[in-house]
Amino acid sequence: MNAMVLAAGFGTRMKPLTDHLPKALLPIHGKPLIEMILNQLQSQGFDKIAVNAHYHAGKIKTFIEQFACRRQLELYYSYEPMILDTGGGIKKMLSFFPTDTPILIHNVDIISAFDLRQIMDHHLFHQADATLVLHSNPTNRPLVFDTDFRLLGRPDDAQYPSSRHYGFCGIQVVQPRLFLSEKEQKFYSIDLYIEAAHRNHKIIGYPIEGVYWRDIGRPEDLQEAEKDILNGLYRPVDITS
Predict the structure, then answer these.
(1) Percentages helix, strand, coil for the chain, rounded to the nearest 5?
(2) Are 162 and 146 in contact (CB under 8 A)?
(3) Which residues, 6 or more positions from 123, have their beta carbon under 8 angstroms from its beta carbon?
(4) Contact yes or no for 96/76 (Cβ under 8 A)
(5) At 160, is the pLDDT very low, low, confident or very high (cuts 50, 70, 90)?
(6) How confident is the model at residue 240 (pLDDT cuts 50, 70, 90)?
(7) Who contacts 113 (Cβ-Cβ below 8 Å, separation ≥6)?
């Protein structure tokens, strides 16, 4: 199975920790964030993975090269001289993959106990163009879905009856054709999904409740994740090198 890890962000909310280190390499319980995600992906059957980078890109490239040497894994590096935002970063990495198979995309600052294979299976079963993993926690940027979990838009541009508001978990599955049809090189993936949904593409949500998930966006989130591991709330996948 194919996957991407989005790791090109500046990590602004993590300063000063990210002054000299990309967010992807910040450690939790002795392991960099990106290593935890790659371990989870590989353990669940994802064997062809691309990672993008911009901020402190050389350090991410070195890590990826060393990681790939230790594992039976096709691991690709996508450098962005100018940051392309989430959609542009995904589109650039499509050259590593077949154009007719789905790709799971994982933000580097998300840790979870999700079975990522189930998300892929859900996407395939519903023959979706994109499947977004959702949470019901309060968020400043909710997405609106109908009762069948078809994406409608944002609350400020989509006032629909019988709608549900959810937050995006930073994990998704997409069909490459959705991004290949986009003419712009720099754009946000969520904007593409909303536009595609308005054109009757099948953009669906996959709500997750009762499964561990944390957004590592601030320094205190690193500390909370450490506590979660010590308290047994979250157990990172550990693959022996």
Answers:
(1) 35, 25, 40
(2) yes
(3) 102, 131, 173, 204, 206
(4) yes
(5) low
(6) low
(7) 211, 212, 213, 234, 235
Full set of structural domains in the chain with CATH: 2-230 (3.90.550.10)
Q: Give which of 98, 93, 99, 86 is closest to 171, Cα–Cα.
A: 86
**HSE on the CB side for 235, CA within 13 Å?**
3
Q: Average pLDDT of 94-122?
A: 95
Contacts of 35 (CB under 8 A, 6+ apart): 63, 67
- Which contiguous run of DSSP H or E holds residue 226? helix 219-230
| Strand (E) or helix (H) holding 197 | helix 189-198
Determine the Cα–Cα distance for residues 137 and 92; give it in Å rounded to an integer.
31
pTM: 0.94
What is the distance between the alpha carbons of residues 74 and 88, in angstroms, rounded to a whole number? Answer: 22
Would you list the DSSP string of 110-132? Answer: EEE---HHHHHHHHHHTT-SEEE
**Interior angle at CA 46, CA 42 and CA 51, nearest 5:** 85
* CA nearest neighbour of 188 among 172, 206, 208, 164: 172
Q: What is the DSSP letter of 89?
A: H
Distance CA(21)–CA(19), nearest Å, equals: 6
- Which two structure tokens, joined as six digits, stand for 137? 């926690």
Question: What was the pLDDT predicted at 164?
Answer: 84
